[in-house]
């Protein structure tokens, strides 16, 4: 299997999963559908298991590592600025595509049976939900937003304490290494996870459910494609003077894994390795990537809620004003961190709908196809999480352009560089074979 590229393994899992899904649906094989659901569910469950310790240790270590970075405050501010700029452009794409395609006009759905989700997002919930009442509870419940808050506070305190905090920081570094190694074992199961997730989606939904929502589904995929293939390359060329093909060659392992795993945080180690391989200094990448994995959501928090809000408004016969579209943009840029607290983009959509005064029951109309939409949304998220630190590093003159230019050639070798990041090992100028993962 070492000679069979990881990307081809995932592609094979995708193809086999689609075929098994169609077989299960065509022949009404409930046992096969259940098996595919179990395989895919276990893969996602294993990814989620690693999220709390991974997020906490990664952010603590990354904040402390800023101590050794020149102009750390400037880099952090520039990172946040570019997060906001790219999110604003992405939501603009979503709104524009929604106005052009009218995804909810003429759609006939049973809105009486649609119910609001049990867990919703509001500005009050978002603000009060940042600070946990019990730090242990944040980890038990897997509330990523609260874990991010705790990690930022603890990391900043450890950085200010200085040498006295080194034993604590060393423990976090060691735990981060352990979690990433265990997570890599899970990542190696991605081909099987892909088979189960895609197969179950096809077996459960087929084309029947997608038919009335085909225009909306297409709009989400087209909007994400515009951001991935037009907006991001333009940002790379104009802001960073970088070759987009090199960027995607280096970032492809992370984007690919994000598509099948539907988890930005679960993909985070691969994203960080990809960013470092593109020439971004490790000290900066170890801050920007974990922070971006929990707050930079161009797919889930920009394109999708913009299109979904227009869809829900049209289905329920509500006319949106210019002010409403401005509110969508504001919520997408400012409230994207709310997506870290709950699963997927549901909380971001409820936050957008509640801000606009649209019926939250509209979320129920889209829940059935959410897994299908989440694949492209997460891929877009992760591409943006890799893009911003690369562009910022280029603009600040700290990007290793030789490493960037050679990233695509290294990735084009016979093995995939998708193993977790090892903070103590050098990344630049390593031979291609050394970038390949150690088999589990």
CA-CA gap between termini: 11 Å
Low-confidence stretches: 412-440
**Helix fraction?**
over 70%
Shape estimate: globular
Strand pairing plus helix content: what structural class?
mainly alpha
Secondary structure: number of strands: 0
Indicate the proportion of strand residues: under 5%
Q: Please state the CA-atom Rg, rounded to the nearest Å.
A: 21 Å
Report the mean per-residue pLDDT as an integer. Answer: 79
Largest β-sheet summary: none
Structure annotation, total helices: 18
What string, H for helix and E for strand, traces the elements in order?
HHHHHHHHHHHHHHHHHH
Protein described:
With about 450 residues, the chain is an all-alpha fold. The chain is built from 18 helices and no strands. Helix 3 runs parallel beside helix 13 and helix 9 runs parallel beside helix 17. The protein is globular and about 65 Å long. The N and C termini lie close together (about 10 Å).
């Amino acid at each position: 299997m070492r000679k069979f590229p990881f990307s081809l393994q995932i592609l094979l899992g995708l193809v086999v999963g689609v075929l098994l899904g169609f077989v299960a649906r065509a022949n009404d094989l409930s046992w096969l559908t259940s098996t595919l659901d179990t395989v895919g569910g276990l893969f996602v469950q294993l990814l989620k298991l690693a999220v709390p310790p991974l997020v906490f240790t990664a952010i603590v270590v990354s904040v402390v590592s800023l101590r050794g970075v020149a102009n750390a405050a400037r880099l952090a501010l520039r990172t946040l600025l570019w997060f906001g700029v790219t999110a604003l452009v992405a939501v603009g794409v979503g709104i524009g595509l929604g106005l052009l395609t009218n995804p909810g006009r003429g759609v006939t759905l049973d809105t009486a049976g649609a119910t609001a989700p049990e867990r919703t997002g509001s500005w009050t919930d978002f603000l009060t939900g940042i600070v946990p009442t019990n730090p242990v509870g944040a980890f038990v419940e897997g509330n990523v937003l609260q874990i991010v808050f705790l990690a930022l506070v603890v990391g900043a305190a450890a950085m200010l304490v200085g040498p006295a905090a080194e034993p604590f920081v060393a423990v976090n570094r060691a735990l981060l290494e352990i979690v990433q190694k265990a997570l890599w074992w899970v990542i190696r199961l991605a081909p099987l996870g892909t088979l189960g997730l895609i197969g179950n989606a096809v077996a459960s939904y087929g084309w029947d459910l997608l038919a009335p929502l085909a225009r909306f589904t297409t709009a989400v995929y087209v909007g994400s494609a515009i951001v991935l293939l037009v907006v991001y390359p333009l940002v790379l060329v104009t802001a960073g003077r970088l070759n987009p093909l090199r960027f995607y060659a280096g970032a492809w392992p992370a984007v690919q894994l994000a598509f099948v795993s539907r988890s930005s945080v679960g993909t985070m180690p691969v994203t960080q390795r990809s960013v470092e391989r593109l020439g971004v200094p490790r000290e900066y990448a170890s801050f920007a990537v974990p922070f971006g994995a929990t707050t930079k959501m161009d797919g889930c928090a920009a394109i999708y809620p913009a299109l979904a809000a227009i869809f829900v408004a049209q289905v329920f016969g509500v006319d949106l004003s210019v002010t409403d579209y401005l509110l969508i943009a504001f919520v997408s840029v400012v409230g994207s961190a709310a997506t870290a607290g709950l699963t997927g983009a549901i909380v971001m959509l409820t936050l957008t709908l509640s801000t606009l005064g649209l019926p939250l029951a509209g979320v129920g109309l889209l829940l059935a196809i959410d897994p299908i939409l989440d694949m492209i949304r997460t891929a877009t998220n992760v591409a943006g999480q890799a893009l911003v630190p690369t562009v910022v590093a280029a603009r600040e003159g700290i990007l290793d352009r030789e490493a960037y230019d050679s990233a695509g050639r290294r990735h084009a070798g016979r093995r995939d560089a998708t193993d977790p990041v090892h903070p103590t090992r050098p990344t630049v100028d390593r031979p291609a074979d050394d970038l390949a993962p150690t088999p589990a």
